[in-house]
Amino acid sequence: MLQLDSHPTGRHFLQIPGPSPVPDRILRAISLPTIDHRGPEFGALGLKVLAGIRQVFQTRHPVVIYPASGTGAWEAALANVMSPGDAVLMYETGHFATLWQKMALRLGLAPEFLGLSGIDDTGLPRSWRHGVQAELIEARLRQDTGKKIRAVCVVHNETSTGVTSDIAAVRRAIDAAGHPALLMVDSISGLASADYRHDEWGVDVTISGSQKGLMLPPGISFNALSPKAMERSRTAKLPKAFWAWDEIVEMNQSGYWPYTPNTNLLYGLAESLDMLLEEGLPQVFARHQRWAAGVRSAVQAWGLPTQCADPAVHSPVLTGVITPEGVDADALRRLIHERFDLSLGTGLGKLKGRMFRMGHLGDSNDLTLVAMVAGVEMGLKLSGVKLAGSGVAAAMEHFASHAAAKALRQAA
Ligand SMILES: *Cc1c(COP(=O)(O)O)cnc(C)c1O
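That is the input. Now the predicted structure with pyridoxal-5'-phosphate docked in place:
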């Protein structure tokens, strides 16, 4: 048996922002026997998950499910609607936006990378501490009088920083410029944790994945489509075969796929959709906001800056914490993992060593988050970081006051 760690008892605290902790209910569903993917039971399962996932994307249009990680769904989105050499306007919010831009280059597209310039007083790039500035997109599109830009690509919840972006504002910017570019959005880590409205926000392709808000293991990913995106895919010239939407959408009408889908992960998806829709999406989003506020109250009590510099766009999914100058965030993470069996997210790309990420998504509750805060607080103290106050006390205060308020409401 593979020895995963040296902690024989208790549960590992998987507090990275994806893969998120998977509820037992979902793990049990995934453990059921694999069935014939051409048989009658499978068609019912397929129809169920395809209908349910549309509710989560808040769309009436098709959602394509791939047996791939989120990166595959990025490629699928571009391959379906782009032609070689197409200009795409992308926005630098952090590491994931940067990786998507690199992929566009590798696929032979001509991405232009917008963003805020310069570094701020933490020494970190400003663009990695703020969300998408829709006015920069509008100004750039207005200059594009020949309408050469074929798509605007943005990340909804930038998992490397803990900053969200206002997708409706990006749609308004595109419309205000009177520009026909498609709007493509990576909500790989936002979907099912942060409010997301594919149709209402006028998104043409939304990309998502299984291992973040949907609380599944990694291995399936999604493209939510718009009629305009489907139309574009009929004439787009990048080679596409495995990723091509047309055959999949066609076969999905009866609940099947053109190839072998990821049967057991689809059992998990059916269970995840039941859990999310039973709770209600507004309740799910409010729960993540409440968790995020509790974790931020702890960070504030420690006297440390969050990676997100704009209070209006803090992520409900994760919180990035900047360590004091001279404190290696990865050494801190290693210490916390060794001593307390708690995994935190690393600083990615330009943030390496300067920050760590605390995930508040997946199979969590108020007490698991207080425990995470306690693990971080102990680790910070062991690393010699001078703290302004107790984050644990602040988080407990936050969660207790909410619980009290809820009890009062229910009693009324
Ligand atoms: C996790 C993530 C990805 C990458 O997804 P993989 O499943 O690792 O391929 C891309 N974008 C964002 C915003 C993510 O959170």
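The chain has two domains: 13-20+280-401, 25-278.
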